[in-house]
Design a protein that fits this description.
Blueprint lengths: L13 E3 H9 L3 H10 L2 E3 L2 E2 L6 E3 L4 E3 L2 E3 L6 E6 L28 E2 L8 E7 L2 H8 L7 E7 L5 H13 L14 E4 L4 E6 L6 H8 L4 E9 L2 E2 L9 E3 L2 H5 L2
Helix pairs in contact: 1-2
The structure holds uracil.
The site of uracil has 8 residues, from helix 5.
Length: about 250
């Protein structure tokens, strides 16, 4: 592989496609030219066969369907506002990617989702292996949510819920109990819950299973990573090397 100094996130540069590919893949220009001509290269979803096509380093370039990049990988924490969809594209709603500057968007995706109405910590990256480590069910990565309930729970009901969640609860339409989850009661309607799975609408369905309704859901922690208290909704910041290495 050629020695390439990766560009810092947010730093874009424009160059010919054959030069870009050679730098990003470690192949020689003579090796990449036939690949481009054969149609093995896509730029932002378009197959490009022109060797001199001008590509910017913040575009998404695929060689035989695999991303190739000159950028240093992007790892961000973002405070998701309500009403923003945890996806890269959506016809109806603003997406998490829409909250990022253009230079940080190529190939970046959320490492785990939050419902449209939920708020709080989302991790974003263009490193597919890293996001797999964050979301893989095998890793049992714990997530802590703050929950507001529609109906106050009595002390006895809190105790019962704590036990049910600790033992695992059967969600409607499912056949396997949830894995043990921890419930921390802050008030009759304000709770924190720690879960290690990521089933569809899991936290809302767990409270539905005990006859209640979640009216506010805010994720505050993934693994050991806690959402910065000073990140306003919609704001993001890069993760430090130590934070990236946690996963
Ligand atoms: N549980 C839910 O119900 N919704 C989320 O967005 C995350 C966990």
């Amino acid at each position: 592989m050629a020695k390439v100094n990766k560009l810092a996130p947010g730093v874009a540069e424009t160059m010919r496609l054959d030069r870009f590919l050679a730098l990003a893949s470690g192949l020689s220009r003579a090796q990449v030219r036939p690949l481009i001509k054969r149609g093995a290269v896509q730029v932002d979803g378009q197959r490009i066969r022109d060797l001199a096509f001008k590509v910017s380093t913040d575009q998404l370039v695929l060689l035989s369907d695999n991303p190739v990049s000159l950028r240093a990988p992007v790892y961000l924490m973002l405070n998701k506002p309500a009403g923003v969809v945890s996806a890269t594209e959506d016809a109806e709603h603003q997406t998490l990617i829409d909250l990022l500057p253009d230079a940080l968007r190529a190939g970046v995706h959320p490492a785990g989702r939050l419902d449209l109405d939920a708020t709080g910590l989302v991790l974003l990256t263009d490193d597919g292996q890293w996001s797999h480590r964050v979301t893989s069910p095998k890793r049992l990565c714990s997530k802590r949510y703050r929950v507001e309930l529609a109906d106050p729970l009595s002390v006895a009901a809190c105790e019962a819920a704590r036990e049910q969640f600790a033992q695992g609860i059967m969600l409607r339409g499912e056949t396997k109990l949830t894995l043990p989850a921890e419930l921390i009661v802050d008030s009759p309607t304000q709770m924190q819950i720690l879960v290690t799975e990521g089933r569809y609408h899991q936290v809302k369905r767990m409270f539905a299973a005990i006859g209640n309704k979640v009216v506010r859901l805010h994720r505050e922690q993934i693994g050991a990573l806690v959402l910065d208290a000073d990140l306003e909704p919609g704001q993001f910041r890069p993760l430090s090397a130590a934070e990236i290495a946690q996963f």
